[in-house]
Design a protein that fits this description.
Layout lengths: L9 H25 L11 E16 L6 E2 L5 E11 L4 E13 L5 E17 L2 E16 L2 E17 L4 E14 L13 E15 L1
Antiparallel strand pairs: 1-2, 1-3, 1-9, 3-4, 4-5, 5-6, 6-7, 7-8, 8-9
């Protein structure tokens, strides 16, 4: 009896069938339209980042005088970063950076860190918050003095993703630079110092 359509009822039956099939399709299309697209990254994906901004000398610690002012002006800083994604949240790479600042007598301190960097991404698309830790070597020059020291740079960032390739944001990174003397040179071990600095940069990130 289900298939026994009486005369005069084909139009009604066709309308019922059309409504039956249209409602589920409409729901599916609506869900697709509302769903937000969030890109994912995996092994083989890479990113480049260029960062330029302000370098803030904080203080020196260690030695017989304890904590002392850095006695430096505000300076400039920048770094170039390359990383490869290990997973959607984790990336490993390297960076080359630099800074300059002046003493009150206009002598210049230069530092150039070369470091490996591990980054973990927290995301609320289209925003993301990279947490990073870099470790490596720091090449510093002040006047005629030149020294190579270890450096540790923890950092946090805030980025807005314009699309799946380009992102723009802000980074704040803490430079911890220990200058260690063993006492076997003309500089005694009592001159050991731990430099503490803050780098704040505007950043452009490209992923490919």
């Amino acid at each position: 009896m289900i298939f026994n359509v009486r005369k005069g009822q084909p139009a009604v039956a066709a309308l019922i069938l059309a409504v039956f099939f249209l409602i589920p399709a409409t729901n599916v299309f609506t869900q697709d339209a509302v769903e937000e697209f969030e890109p994912t990254y995996g092994l083989g994906d890479q990113m480049l980042s260029l960062n330029l901004g302000l370098f803030i000398p904080l203080f020196y610690a260690g030695g017989p005088d304890g904590i002392k002012d850095a006695n430096l002006t505000l300076g400039g800083t920048g770094h170039l970063l390359w990383s490869a994604f290990l997973s959607n949240e984790l990336a490993l790479g390297g960076e080359l950076g630099g800074m300059f600042a002046y003493t009150p007598n206009r002598n210049t301190l230069f530092m150039i860190p070369l470091a490996a960097r591990l980054t973990y991404f927290l995301r609320a698309y289209p925003f993301e918050f990279p947490l990073s830790l870099a470790a490596g070597m720091n090449f510093s020059r002040f006047g005629e003095s030149f020294k190579i020291d270890p450096i540790l740079i923890p950092g946090v960032g805030f980025y807005w993703n314009m699309n799946t390739e380009w992102a723009f944001g802000f980074d704040a990174r803490y430079w911890w630079v220990p200058q260690i003397y063993t006492g076997q040179s003309e500089v005694p071990s009592s001159e050991n110092r731990f430099g503490n600095f803050l780098a704040t940069t505007l950043s452009v990130m490209y992923r490919f």
